[in-house]
Design goal:
two-stranded antiparallel sheet; 5 helices; Ribosomal Protein L22, Chain A; alpha+beta
């Protein structure tokens, strides 16, 4: 294994880049899980007091998921065959000091790689005999089941969020349809009002014409009466 390059080591890997932790702090935790089974490594990372343990734990779960989905290897048969931290880019910051001086602060980053491999048949048989003698499942089985439950919960949450977004979109379209219906009703009411006003105007015009006809008849009758009176006076 020492003669192989880091990118040529066998196994299934997962890489986390640009972690805002110095490589020396990451390597202190990686030394604890190197060579351990998946279940034992998960327990160590869960109860570790180092803040970077959470990042390493997620990287380990990602490597195990890659092994299960891509290579078809059960999580119970995996162990951490290699893990290392490479130095990433360093961020330079400055701090003011006495007498007008300034000192540089190096904020280092790391690239974390975790590689998991399958136990050989002899080791797997020994582990199975040990678990049968104890009468209970090993830590790797519990860790694999816990990881599957976390994945199912995360998928359920994602599906619920997508369904909620779809409902909101549907409600938005419903409001748009309601606004269109309201606008159509208002337009119909305005059209009815205009028709009523037109009818009123027509009726008013008819009444005016009828009044004019009555006035004309009255004037004719008055002129006839005046002519008859003049004739009587002349006789």
């Amino acid at each position: 294994m020492t003669g192989l390059k880091t990118n040529e080591r066998p196994g299934t890997r997962a890489v986390v880049k640009y972690v805002r932790v110095s490589p020396s702090k990451v390597r202190a935790v990686l030394d604890l899980v190197r060579g351990e089974s998946y279940g034992r490594a998960s327990e160590i990372l869960t109860f570790s007091e180092r803040a970077v343990s959470d990042v390493i734990g997620k990287c380990l779960d990602s490597a195990v998921a890659n092994a299960e989905n891509n290579d078809g290897i059960p999580a119970e048969e995996l162990y951490v065959s290699a893990c290392y931290a490479d130095e990433g880019p360093t961020l330079k910051r400055w701090r003011p000091r006495a007498r007008g001086r300034a000192t540089r602060i190096n904020k280092r980053t790391s690239h974390i790689t975790v590689i998991v491999s399958r136990y050989d048949e002899a080791t797997l048989e020994e582990l199975r005999e040990r678990q049968a003698a104890k009468g209970r499942a090993g830590s790797s089985v519990h860790a694999a089941e816990a990881r599957r439950q976390r994945v199912e919960r995360s998928r359920a949450v994602a599906e619920a969020e997508s369904a909620e977004e779809a409902d909101h979109d549907h409600e938005g379209h419903g409001h748009d349809d309601g606004d269109q219906v309201v606008a159509a009703v208002e337009a119909a009411i305005e059209a009815d009002v205009l028709d009523v006003e037109a009818d009123v105007d027509v009726e008013a015009g008819a009444d005016v014409e009828a009044g004019a006809d009555v006035e004309a008849d009255v004037e004719v009758a008055e002129s006839d009466a005046n002519e008859q009176q003049d004739e009587e006076e002349s006789n």
